[in-house]
Write a structure and sequence with these properties.
The structure holds three protein chains of three kinds.
Chain A (H helix, E strand, L loop, with lengths): L2 H32 L6 H18 L4 H24 L6 H23 L14 E4 L2 E4 H4 L1 H18 L1 H11 L1 H6 L4 H23 L10 H15 L4 H21 L2 H18 L11
Antiparallel strand pairs in A: 1-2
Chain B lengths: L3 H19 L6 H24 L8 H19 L3 H23 L4 H21 L32 H24 L1 H9 L13 H27 L9 H14 L5 H16 L7 H15 L7 H18 L1
Helix pairs in contact in B: 2-6, 2-8, 2-9, 2-10, 3-4, 3-5, 3-8, 4-8, 6-7, 7-12, 9-10, 9-11
Chain C lengths: L2 H23 L17 E9 L12 H14 L3 E3 L2 E11 L4 H14 L2 E8 L2 H12 L2 E6 L18 H13 L5 E7 L2 H16 L3 E8 L7 H8 L5 E3 L5 H13 L5 E3 L5 H5 L4 H4 L3 E2 L15 H13 L13 H20 L4 H10 L11 E2 L1 H7 L6 E2 L2 E6 L12 E7 L1 H18 L4 H5 L2
Parallel strand pairs in C: 1-3, 1-4, 4-5, 6-7, 6-8, 8-9, 9-10
Antiparallel strand pairs in C: 2-3, 11-12, 13-14
Helix pairs in contact in C: 2-12, 3-4, 5-6, 6-15, 12-13
């Protein structure tokens, strides 16, 4: 492997890691605070992408506006589903999982029927061209995910540690009963967590829409890896999700370059299984899952 | 205390079995096939529930069924094994797969179990997709033969390529499987399984090896899933990795969500209801999955029995177990 | 008995009643075709499409309904299909197999046994191979878009679709018309289609004397194509043929080629040019990019023409602002199933009956079988060589390139036809190269059955 290819793979690794990180961190937040396995996460991403297509490609508004709209739309969707569906099923992991899969069907079919199938929805990269780093070239649109991801995750960390509400979220995530005894309303925390995490998913979908192909089924491609990452990192742990994104994201990029992405997915699943066999709480998860 | 329940279901059971034996003669070939598939799915749903009673929503179950299907398809088609010998062997091979999977899984909890089982199932399924030999890659395996005809002196030859003979083959296997699973469910083993369901219950404190029993349930459930796979593969004559993917898995979960898992008959009711609903809704075409989604969410939110009833089931079982252990 | 058991018994009885009633009822639900009583005028015949109407593969099935719908409307409005002395309205029945083999097998039985369909159009493998034995068993003609024919599949007619053979032609055309190309990279997705496409593409380029610098297949789960393209460009190709990769991947591959500074020739089976142009300037594509599917709006058909009529009708129903706006341009899937149905109808009208044996015989007796994109011809020798049977027909093949300004004589579209040719002409001279490529990948018919 020539040096240029190595460097290219390193850059791709970072981009892959942060693409997954933005998704995984939000999911980890929901897992921790709302005890919710949102299997429809890929579809939240898809709605974000479709929103950008509608606002930016069809509507002609600036990309930044489209991203904001996506954030609001998907964040709102998260809040609505939390209030109407998931709240009533709180505590029952299997029930929330299945309700989420029901959502998958609804979102996929509705989007496909309303806006047609057969071609992906085109979203022009707002930042065209690529940049050169030591012989490796990376599209700007793809590269931008790294600083965007750092900003979003950094912002979330800041919020969770420096703001009262953020600390309340962390408290609920660590020990829901104790937090409730302190007067923190678990339902309110769940709603806020869902809202924030869904907004993240919306932004992720928006940022990825010029890169991934936009179809009603685009979510199914990423959902497995994102879940592997969250579980591998430790259910409910945001730091764990970030660490796992970096490790598995890099691994995925390297194996894809050397072999192919099917093998990369299989190996990621096996690593996750092996680690969890000996350390059921994942990398940075709490003892009590 | 358990005995008195047995006499009542007997009458209903006989009626149901008689009905199942009569109904194929009134159905067209296609609907006989729907009924055949339905019987296979009932076995699958109950084998899933068996694993579930120890606290695991095992999302690898459909893929495990696929292991049985692939094994039997390859052995019968390519190596000429007879169907009847392959059926139990495939079940055992699948049970072995279940045992291997249960090693990491039995120690996982909650979310990790859910996602871990899904990931491992996918790893297996992706390998089928990846390997042309022996699994046929994405094209899968076609031309899977039906069992050879039976020539019983004095009777007309039973040709399993016809819809009705194969239906009765499946019915026979189903009755035997259900009988075994029912006995397990009603036995002390079954009680032990159910007491493990809730992790932080006193089962551990009375010295039961949770992990060991979870593994056992996994192995038994996988055995029956393997049987289902054999029956399904030989019925359709062709399988491919997509048959065992996420979509059909979610439908399996829907059967259980709808039917309830507290009782033995719950999954049966759920499976029958959902399969019939699916057939009736066929004219909806591309909109059909959306209806599935709404039904699923509706059932989860509004139906009184089923998932919510589960915690209520655990407590008396544990009490009974503790009482029995204290007595000994 | 107590309340709980009573409730159980009621539920079970209800379910049992449903089990009897629903199968009987499903024939009466709305949306099902009402067959006109014999004395009420023209009869109706059912044909079927068993394909993916939901799930990720739906984009290869659902759009097919558009073209078939327009064709059947035309036929029925003209009085129906002429079968001997009688006329029949043709009605389409669909079954969603989600591209899954087991569901397809069930679906075939449903449409043939319950809906009495006389013809089945379907997608590709795995469903096509699952349904093929049933086609033989129930003597119903089946046309898959792309699936191999076999000796034991006498009623499976293959070849209406261009793909695979047109990939060979594209490689040969570019190799012989662009002498600056010495090395080519061939990329495909990692599935059956990809493997077959690879064999056909490689054969085409080799026949033009070009060296193959890279041959690879990427997983369908790939979302980042930068590493794929990096690996390709590392072999320094003069041309990159994306072969039969799905259009959504080709867009991203093309983008990567552009971003990573590739200046050679690009080729692909059938692209989503609108989406590609969203990412890559048209000036980059002009003169560089080549594909193999002609559009119905192209100038070569002339005006007026059935093709232009079809284009206008489609736009009126499914185009921008139309009642069923699909938010996309017309794609090949929109008319590929339609061509298959057309072939069957040609055979039925020639035979004067629905009997499948006679329809097949009538088709074989025809020198040319007309469809919207041109006449199909029989290629028995090629069929025998590659499929082991003579059941292979061949449409005319094309090569196209994107246009940068509207083309005179065209009524729309984003590309123009450069040339048209016949695969059988190429095969006469270079057939052995293709056979060698197929054999090395275990794709020849005698390797399939022995599996």
């Amino acid at each position: 492997m020539g040096l240029a290819l190595v460097w290219q793979t390193v850059i791709n690794g970072w981009v892959t890691s942060f693409s997954y990180a933005v998704l995984a961190v939000g999911l980890a937040l929901i897992f921790g605070v709302a005890r919710l396995a949102n299997f429809a996460w890929g579809e939240f991403l898809m709605v974000g992408a479709y929103t950008v297509w509608m606002v930016y490609t069809i509507g002609g508004y600036p990309f930044a506006v489209a991203v904001l709209v996506a954030m609001v739309v998907v964040g709102g969707m998260g809040a609505i589903t939390e209030l109407s569906i998931f709240r009533r099923l709180r505590g029952n992991i299997a029930a929330t999982f299945m309700a989420a899969t029901g959502l998958i069907y609804i979102l996929q079919v509705f989007t496909g029927q309303m806006w047609g199938l057969g071609r992906t929805k085109p979203v022009l990269p707002p930042i065209p061209g690529s940049l050169e780093i030591l012989g490796a070239s990376v599209g700007w649109q793809r590269f931008v995910i790294i600083p965007a991801g750092i900003a979003m995750i950094g912002g979330l960390w800041f919020f969770l540690h420096r703001f009262k509400m953020g600390r309340a979220l962390r408290a609920t995530s660590q020990d829901a009963e104790a937090a409730a005894l302190q007067g923190i309303n678990p339902n309110r925390m769940a709603l806020i967590a869902m809202g924030i995490a869904s907004a993240f998913a919306g932004v992720a979908g928006a940022l990825l829409s010029p890169i991934y192909s936009v179809t009603p089924y685009m979510g199914t491609r990423v959902i497995l890896m994102v879940f592997i990452i969250v579980v591998f990192g430790g259910v409910g742990s945001i730091e764990g999700a970030l660490l796992a994104s970096i490790i598995l994201g890099f691994l995925y990029a390297v194996i894809t370059t050397l072999l192919d992405s099917t093998i990369a997915t299989i190996i990621s699943a096996l690593i996750m299984a092996a680690v969890l066999a000996f350390r059921p709480q994942g990398l940075l998860g709490r003892e009590k899952a | 205390m358990r005995k008195h329940n047995l006499s009542r279901p007997h009458a209903g059971l006989v009626v149901l079995i008689a009905f199942s034996c009569v109904v194929p003669f009134f159905l067209s070939t296609y609907y006989c096939g729907v009924a055949t598939e339905l019987l296979i799915f009932i076995i699958l749903a109950l084998s899933f529930r068996l694993i579930l009673t120890t606290g695991g929503w095992n999302l690898a179950h459909y893929v495990v069924m696929g292991c049985g299907a692939y094994f039997s398809a390859i052995m019968v088609r390519d190596f000429g094994w007879p169907f009847w010998a392959t059926l139990p062997v495939a079940g055992l091979v699948t049970a072995l797969v279940g045992l291997v999977l249960s090693y990491p899984l039995a120690r996982m909890r909650e979310f990790a179990y859910l996602i871990g089982s899904y990931a491992m199932g996918e790893a297996i399924r992706l390998s089928w997709n990846r390997l042309e030999y022996p699994f046929g890659g994405p094209g899968g395996i076609t031309d899977i033969p039906r069992p050879s005809p039976w020539s019983i002196p004095g009777l007309p030859t039973i040709d399993f390529r016809q819809a009705i003979p194969y239906y009765f083959l499946v019915l026979g296997v189903m009755l035997v499987s259900l009988f075994i699973m029912y006995r397990i469910d009603r036995s002390r083993l079954g009680d032990t399984f159910k007491s493990i369901y809730s992790q932080d219950v006193l089962a551990e404190s009375v010295g039961i090896s949770i992990v060991g029993y979870k593994r056992l349930a996994f192995v038994i459930g996988s055995f029956f899933a393997g049987i289902c796979g054999v029956l399904l593969g030989h019925y359709h004559g062709a399988i491919d990795p997509a048959v065992f993917a996420l979509g059909p898995l979610i439908i399996l979960l829907a059967w259980l969500a709808v039917g309830g898992i507290t009782t033995f008959t719950g999954p049966i009711i759920g499976t029958v209801f959902f399969v019939l609903l699916a057939e009736a809704l066929r004219p909806l075409g591309a909109w059909r999955p959306l209806v599935y989604g709404c039904v699923l969410i509706g059932v989860l939110l509004f139906m009184p029995y089923g998932l919510e009833g589960l915690p209520a089931m655990v407590a008396p079982r544990v009490k009974r177990l503790r009482r029995r252990i204290r007595r000994e | 008995m107590n309340r709980k058991e009573l409730r159980k018994l009621i539920i079970v009885s209800l379910v049992v009643v449903l089990a009897i009633v629903v199968p009987m009822m499903s024939g009466c639900l709305p949306g099902k075709p009402a067959v006109a009583p014999p004395e009420a005028g023209p009869k109706t015949v059912n044909i079927a499409m068993v394909t993916a109407l939901s799930g990720p593969a739906a984009m290869w099935g659902l759009p097919g309904l558009t073209g078939v719908g327009i064709l059947l409307d035309d036929v029925n409005n003209a009085g129906g299909l002429q079968v001997g002395d009688e006329r029949y309205f043709v009605n389409l029945v669909t079954y969603d197999d989600e591209n899954i083999a087991t569901k397809a097998a069930m679906g075939f039985k449903k449409v043939v046994l319950e809906d009495d369909a006389k013809f089945v159009a379907c997608l590709c493998d795995p469903p096509a191979s699952a349904m093929a034995p049933l086609s033989t068993q129930y003597k119903v003609m089946m046309i898959p878009l792309c699936a191999p024919g076999r000796e034991d599949r006498p009623y499976v007619l293959v070849g209406t679709d261009h793909c695979m053979r047109t990939d060979t032609m594209r490689g040969w055309y570019l190799a012989t018309h662009h002498p600056e190309i010495k090395r080519v990279a061939i990329i495909n997705n990692d599935d059956i289609m990809g493997k077959q496409g690879e064999a056909f593409s490689v054969a085409g380029w080799k026949s033009g004397g070009v060296e193959i610098s890279y041959v690879g297949r990427f997983s369908l789960d790939t979302t980042d194509f930068a590493p794929v393209m990096s690996a390709v460009l590392a072999t320094k190709p003069d041309a990159i043929d994306m072969s039969v990769t799905y259009p959504e991947f080709a867009i991203l591959l093309t983008e990567q080629a552009y971003l990573q500074g590739f200046t050679g020739i690009l080729a692909h089976l059938d692209s989503d040019l609108a989406a590609t142009i969203a990412r890559v300037p048209v000036s980059y594509l002009a003169g560089r990019y080549h594909e193999s599917f002609a559009e119905m709006s192209d100038a070569i058909w002339g005006d007026p023409s059935p093709q232009h009529d079809f284009y206008r009708k489609w736009a009126a129903l499914y185009g921008p602002g139309a009642p069923h706006d699909q938010f996309r341009a017309m794609i090949s899937v929109d008319w590929l199933y339609m061509n298959a149905v057309q072939v069957w109808m040609d055979g039925v009208e020639a035979a004067g009956t629905f009997d499948t044996d006679q329809v097949m015989a009538a088709l074989k007796a025809m020198d040319e079988i007309p469809t919207m994109t041109g006449p199909h011809i029989w290629t028995d020798k090629i069929g025998l060589d590659i499929l082991g049977i003579a059941n292979w027909i061949e449409p005319p093949m094309f090569i196209t390139t994107p246009i940068t300004e509207p083309q005179p004589g065209a009524i729309g579209g984003d590309r123009r036809v450069l040339d048209t040719f016949r695969f059988s002409d190429w095969y006469e001279e270079y057939g052995d190269i293709l056979k060698a490529e197929l054999e090395s990948r275990d794709l020849m018919w005698y390797q399939q059955v022995a599996e």
